[in-house]
Specification:
Structural class: alpha/beta
Order of helices and strands: EHHEEHEHEHEHEHH
Number of helices: 8
Strand content: 15-25%
Helix content: 25-40%
Shape: globular
Amino acid sequence: MHSAVVFWDVDTQVDFMRADGKLYVPDAEAIIPNLKALTDCAHARGIRIIASADDHVSGHRELSPGPDFRETFPEHCMRGTRGQAKIPETRLREPLLVQPDPEDPAILADRVRAHPGDILFNKHWFDVFTNANVEPVLGVLNPRHIVLYGVAQDVCDRYAVEGLRTRRADIALYVVRDAMRPIDPVAGERLLRQWSDEGVHIVETNDVVTGGLLDSLIAA
Protein backbone atom coordinates (compact mmCIF):
# COMPACT_ATOMS: atom_id res chain seq x y z
CA MET A 1 0.00 0.00 0.00
CA HIS A 2 1.49 3.35 -1.09
CA SER A 3 1.48 5.81 1.80
CA ALA A 4 2.48 8.93 -0.13
CA VAL A 5 -0.81 9.10 -2.05
CA VAL A 6 -4.41 8.49 -1.04
CA PHE A 7 -7.61 8.87 -3.04
CA TRP A 8 -10.50 10.68 -1.32
CA ASP A 9 -14.00 9.63 -2.41
CA VAL A 10 -16.72 12.03 -1.28
CA ASP A 11 -20.23 10.63 -0.77
CA THR A 12 -20.63 8.52 -3.93
CA GLN A 13 -23.87 7.09 -2.57
CA VAL A 14 -27.01 5.93 -4.36
CA ASP A 15 -29.22 8.81 -3.16
CA PHE A 16 -26.80 11.33 -4.69
CA MET A 17 -25.50 9.40 -7.70
CA ARG A 18 -28.60 7.74 -9.17
CA ALA A 19 -31.43 9.64 -10.84
CA ASP A 20 -33.98 7.78 -8.72
CA GLY A 21 -32.13 8.69 -5.51
CA LYS A 22 -33.71 10.90 -2.88
CA LEU A 23 -31.27 13.78 -3.45
CA TYR A 24 -29.84 13.29 -6.93
CA VAL A 25 -27.01 15.66 -7.82
CA PRO A 26 -27.75 16.88 -11.37
CA ASP A 27 -25.91 14.90 -14.04
CA ALA A 28 -24.12 12.76 -11.46
CA GLU A 29 -24.78 9.57 -13.41
CA ALA A 30 -22.56 10.94 -16.20
CA ILE A 31 -19.45 10.77 -14.00
CA ILE A 32 -19.93 7.18 -12.85
CA PRO A 33 -17.52 5.78 -15.50
CA ASN A 34 -14.83 8.18 -14.27
CA LEU A 35 -15.50 7.26 -10.66
CA LYS A 36 -15.16 3.59 -11.54
CA ALA A 37 -11.91 4.27 -13.40
CA LEU A 38 -10.46 6.07 -10.39
CA THR A 39 -11.59 3.37 -7.97
CA ASP A 40 -10.21 0.59 -10.16
CA CYS A 41 -6.96 2.50 -10.63
CA ALA A 42 -6.47 2.95 -6.89
CA HIS A 43 -7.08 -0.71 -6.17
CA ALA A 44 -4.87 -1.88 -9.03
CA ARG A 45 -2.02 0.38 -7.91
CA GLY A 46 -2.24 -0.41 -4.20
CA ILE A 47 -3.45 3.06 -3.23
CA ARG A 48 -5.72 3.44 -0.23
CA ILE A 49 -9.11 5.09 -0.72
CA ILE A 50 -10.50 7.25 2.05
CA ALA A 51 -14.23 7.65 1.58
CA SER A 52 -16.93 9.62 3.35
CA ALA A 53 -20.59 8.70 3.53
CA ASP A 54 -23.69 10.38 4.89
CA ASP A 55 -25.30 8.20 7.55
CA HIS A 56 -28.52 9.86 8.63
CA VAL A 57 -31.31 9.20 11.10
CA SER A 58 -34.31 11.44 11.76
CA GLY A 59 -33.37 14.54 13.70
CA HIS A 60 -29.97 15.20 12.14
CA ARG A 61 -29.49 18.94 11.70
CA GLU A 62 -29.17 18.96 7.91
CA LEU A 63 -32.53 17.19 7.45
CA SER A 64 -35.69 19.26 7.23
CA PRO A 65 -39.28 18.83 5.96
CA GLY A 66 -38.95 22.42 4.69
CA PRO A 67 -35.38 22.48 3.36
CA ASP A 68 -33.64 25.58 2.04
CA PHE A 69 -31.23 23.46 -0.08
CA ARG A 70 -28.27 25.38 1.35
CA GLU A 71 -28.02 24.38 5.01
CA THR A 72 -30.91 21.91 5.09
CA PHE A 73 -32.10 19.20 2.70
CA PRO A 74 -34.87 16.60 2.51
CA GLU A 75 -34.26 13.19 4.05
CA HIS A 76 -31.51 11.29 2.22
CA CYS A 77 -28.94 8.57 2.87
CA MET A 78 -31.02 7.25 5.76
CA ARG A 79 -29.27 4.54 7.71
CA GLY A 80 -29.97 1.04 6.44
CA THR A 81 -31.61 2.12 3.18
CA ARG A 82 -30.51 1.42 -0.39
CA GLY A 83 -29.90 5.13 -0.85
CA GLN A 84 -27.28 5.22 1.90
CA ALA A 85 -25.11 2.60 0.21
CA LYS A 86 -22.21 3.43 -2.06
CA ILE A 87 -22.74 2.70 -5.73
CA PRO A 88 -21.12 -0.56 -6.91
CA GLU A 89 -18.68 1.30 -9.12
CA THR A 90 -16.99 2.88 -6.09
CA ARG A 91 -17.15 -0.14 -3.81
CA LEU A 92 -14.34 -0.08 -1.25
CA ARG A 93 -11.89 -2.89 -0.58
CA GLU A 94 -12.03 -4.25 2.98
CA PRO A 95 -13.18 -0.89 4.37
CA LEU A 96 -12.40 0.06 7.94
CA LEU A 97 -15.56 1.82 9.14
CA VAL A 98 -14.89 4.82 11.37
CA GLN A 99 -17.88 6.39 13.10
CA PRO A 100 -18.11 10.10 14.10
CA ASP A 101 -17.76 9.74 17.86
CA PRO A 102 -14.19 10.25 19.13
CA GLU A 103 -12.13 7.10 19.60
CA ASP A 104 -9.16 6.61 21.86
CA PRO A 105 -6.30 8.00 19.71
CA ALA A 106 -3.87 5.18 20.51
CA ILE A 107 -6.41 2.44 19.81
CA LEU A 108 -7.52 4.18 16.61
CA ALA A 109 -3.92 4.51 15.45
CA ASP A 110 -3.35 0.81 16.02
CA ARG A 111 -6.52 -0.03 14.09
CA VAL A 112 -5.43 2.07 11.14
CA ARG A 113 -1.84 0.78 11.08
CA ALA A 114 -3.03 -2.83 11.17
CA HIS A 115 -5.64 -2.36 8.46
CA PRO A 116 -4.65 -3.20 4.86
CA GLY A 117 -7.74 -1.88 3.08
CA ASP A 118 -9.69 1.31 2.50
CA ILE A 119 -11.22 3.58 5.15
CA LEU A 120 -14.83 4.76 5.34
CA PHE A 121 -15.80 7.74 7.50
CA ASN A 122 -19.49 7.97 8.34
CA LYS A 123 -20.78 11.48 8.96
CA HIS A 124 -23.99 13.12 10.13
CA TRP A 125 -23.48 16.52 8.50
CA PHE A 126 -21.96 17.90 5.29
CA ASP A 127 -18.48 18.38 6.70
CA VAL A 128 -16.45 15.18 6.96
CA PHE A 129 -14.38 16.83 9.69
CA THR A 130 -17.41 16.67 12.00
CA ASN A 131 -16.27 13.05 12.29
CA ALA A 132 -13.85 13.56 15.16
CA ASN A 133 -11.57 10.77 13.96
CA VAL A 134 -10.68 12.14 10.52
CA GLU A 135 -7.76 14.27 11.68
CA PRO A 136 -6.21 11.54 13.85
CA VAL A 137 -6.44 9.06 10.97
CA LEU A 138 -4.80 11.54 8.61
CA GLY A 139 -2.06 11.97 11.18
CA VAL A 140 -1.40 8.22 11.13
CA LEU A 141 -1.49 7.89 7.34
CA ASN A 142 0.39 11.17 6.78
CA PRO A 143 -0.10 11.31 2.99
CA ARG A 144 1.80 13.83 0.90
CA HIS A 145 -0.79 13.90 -1.91
CA ILE A 146 -4.58 13.52 -1.96
CA VAL A 147 -6.63 12.96 -5.12
CA LEU A 148 -10.21 14.03 -4.36
CA TYR A 149 -13.49 13.48 -6.23
CA GLY A 150 -17.21 12.82 -5.67
CA VAL A 151 -20.37 14.82 -4.93
CA ALA A 152 -21.66 17.36 -4.45
CA GLN A 153 -18.85 19.64 -5.50
CA ASP A 154 -20.36 22.79 -4.00
CA VAL A 155 -21.40 21.17 -0.70
CA CYS A 156 -19.57 18.14 0.72
CA ASP A 157 -16.61 18.37 -1.69
CA ARG A 158 -16.20 22.00 -0.71
CA TYR A 159 -16.13 21.16 2.99
CA ALA A 160 -13.58 18.41 2.35
CA VAL A 161 -11.31 20.57 0.19
CA GLU A 162 -11.45 23.58 2.47
CA GLY A 163 -11.10 21.43 5.58
CA LEU A 164 -8.01 19.74 4.21
CA ARG A 165 -6.47 23.04 3.17
CA THR A 166 -7.11 24.56 6.59
CA ARG A 167 -5.94 21.59 8.64
CA ARG A 168 -3.24 20.04 6.46
CA ALA A 169 -1.67 22.69 4.27
CA ASP A 170 1.33 20.38 3.88
CA ILE A 171 -0.70 17.97 1.71
CA ALA A 172 -0.81 18.62 -2.05
CA LEU A 173 -4.43 18.41 -3.14
CA TYR A 174 -5.60 17.26 -6.60
CA VAL A 175 -9.28 17.81 -7.43
CA VAL A 176 -10.61 15.68 -10.31
CA ARG A 177 -13.01 18.06 -12.03
CA ASP A 178 -14.64 15.52 -14.37
CA ALA A 179 -15.31 13.15 -11.46
CA MET A 180 -17.40 15.75 -9.60
CA ARG A 181 -20.78 17.36 -10.11
CA PRO A 182 -22.17 20.44 -8.30
CA ILE A 183 -25.75 21.19 -7.39
CA ASP A 184 -25.25 24.71 -8.78
CA PRO A 185 -23.04 24.73 -11.92
CA VAL A 186 -22.18 28.41 -11.52
CA ALA A 187 -21.02 27.83 -7.96
CA GLY A 188 -19.07 24.79 -9.14
CA GLU A 189 -17.09 26.76 -11.71
CA ARG A 190 -16.46 29.54 -9.21
CA LEU A 191 -15.08 27.04 -6.72
CA LEU A 192 -12.73 25.52 -9.29
CA ARG A 193 -11.29 28.95 -10.05
CA GLN A 194 -10.99 29.77 -6.35
CA TRP A 195 -9.31 26.47 -5.51
CA SER A 196 -6.87 26.85 -8.39
CA ASP A 197 -5.97 30.36 -7.21
CA GLU A 198 -5.33 28.90 -3.74
CA GLY A 199 -2.91 26.26 -5.02
CA VAL A 200 -5.20 23.27 -5.45
CA HIS A 201 -4.35 21.27 -8.58
CA ILE A 202 -7.34 20.89 -10.91
CA VAL A 203 -6.97 17.69 -12.96
CA GLU A 204 -8.95 15.28 -15.13
CA THR A 205 -9.59 11.57 -14.65
CA ASN A 206 -7.27 10.65 -17.52
CA ASP A 207 -4.45 12.67 -15.95
CA VAL A 208 -4.65 10.34 -12.97
CA VAL A 209 -5.49 7.03 -14.61
CA THR A 210 -3.41 7.11 -17.79
CA GLY A 211 -1.61 10.45 -17.95
CA GLY A 212 1.36 9.77 -15.72
CA LEU A 213 0.33 12.02 -12.86
CA LEU A 214 -0.01 9.12 -10.46
CA ASP A 215 3.47 7.82 -11.24
CA SER A 216 4.92 11.23 -10.53
CA LEU A 217 3.08 11.48 -7.20
CA ILE A 218 4.16 8.04 -6.06
CA ALA A 219 7.76 8.80 -7.00
CA ALA A 220 7.80 12.24 -5.38
